[in-house]
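Still learning. Any example?
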Amino acid sequence: MNYKWILCPVCGNKTRLKIREDTELKKFPLYCPKCRQENLIEIKQFKVTVITEPDAKTQSPEGSPHNFPKAQPCLNRF
């Protein structure tokens, strides 16, 4: 069996994990002890893919029921 170290996608250094050729990971939180970053990755046949999660603001579309209408200024002043 062939083994390789998982390299950090940010700094390129070795992490604490070794994988085999037949290892498959999905949504795995990879932590790098050197740069202290954590990234979600997927691995299949030694190919590492970094998963980027969308921000909370971009998750809800414009017409979502959670988007409330903007308040109108009150024109009935005494």
In short: Residues 56-59 form the longest helix (4 residues). The mean pLDDT is 84. Residues 3-53 form one domain.
